[in-house]
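Box 3.1 — From sequence to structure: AMP-binding protein
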Amino acid sequence: MVPSLVFGNQHWRKQDVALLAERISRSLNALGVKEGGTVAAMLRNSPSYVATVIACKRAGVYLVSLNWHFKAGEVQFLLEDSGAQALVVHEDLVETIRAGVPAQVALLVAPLHEDADSVARQEWPALGQQGEPLPDSQRFPFNAVVYTSGTTGKPKGVRRLPVAPQVRAEIDAEAAKVAQAVYGTTPESVALLSAPMYHSATMSFVSHACARGATLVLEPGFKAERTLELIAQHRVTHAYLVPTMYQRLLALPAEVRARHDLGSLQQVSSTGSPCARELKLRMIDWFGPVVTEAYGSSEAGYTTFITAGEWLAKPGSAGKALGSAQLSIVGDDGQELPRGEIGLIYVRQPAMPDFTYIGRAQDRENISRDGLVTLGDMGFIDDDGYLFICDRKSDMVISGGVNIYPAEVEASILTMDEVSDVAVFGIPDAEFGEAMAAAVQLKPGCRLDPATLQQRLREKIANYKIPQTITFHDSLPREDTGKIFKRLLREPYWAGVDRRI
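Predicted structure (token representation):
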């Protein structure tokens, strides 16, 4: 199935989207791309991007999505590492990255301004229009290659392994159930996306909307009031939003927020990054019990899910196991821990085929245990089976031999009325090995000094968890998904230090 699209002021019928996907499929076939081959896309949110996703998924062609802000060197690494045979790219980005495109990689150049009429006139793409489209695949149900951002070194490419044709239907059915829980989209849904499609979570949101034949309201980027206008105008039923978007929506004047009818919303999905308790509570108060959250990763897929009602009963939880997902909490000795104890989270989602890291088999092996994988998150499972994520193991601070989880400290700081955003991390300390530091962003017009912040924290958390170093910033560096680039904040403190913990 294919979606209908609302993009800008244009409505694309399903047959328009299908025609563009067919044109792209013919082009890839003419270039010699086959099932199991690899194609890269460097596109802004657009009908071209949606059609490329559809064409590659049907044909079992691996699709590598590149951040369109990347420069030539970044593009070159990803194209070479993934073995891409072609790059679909918007025309205005070509010159910026041309030097990084290997000679063997063909370019399919998409127009910056596209409309359904131009597709009907066969104006794009020009290559391969007279050939046959690629045949449907039976072995590659999950074809997106996602590169994990990581904190050090080069990113790792997550590639799904092919499955036998006889189990394809079973995996597809199980995956559809998982996606249905996480996103809720039906053929009658109107789904809104303004976050970049090149992220794994947003790509999953789009893929599900396509598979369900929904109407997809696609925006080039996020604007807070524009989001409210679109929800009201198109009677949006399902939306994908991340915590940074929540913050910007809530920052709108009360009269602006009250101006728009949001009663059509049935489910708001957030999966890219954890959401602070106070922030999520304010969104539920405003939007109603439609705000959901899922915990997952590029490697393992979505493994837990929680509704607004469940979250209100279990504040801070990431939910219960989704579908037939398996969860295990493991201690430092490698043994599974009992309920309530914090350890390394291991997961498996049988709805997802197994994966490999491209060219990095040992890295893949290093995260495995008894068929489950870990991405370094620390947490615990309560007596009712709900998962609580404490922090990343890589973010955990060990000060004087005591484990401190920055996420707990961040949550306490975010309850302060003056604070808009915060990141807590470890910095070198001669006596204790590591000390706590906090980078704080205040709301416009607000004032707060380090001593006052520390005094308030003493009323909430143990003294040893209170950051000794507090700095204030106009803004904090974040990815589009909302994750803070803690590495950028941490690095200046560790410069010249011959250790990282």
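Summary of the box: The chain has a mean pLDDT of 89.
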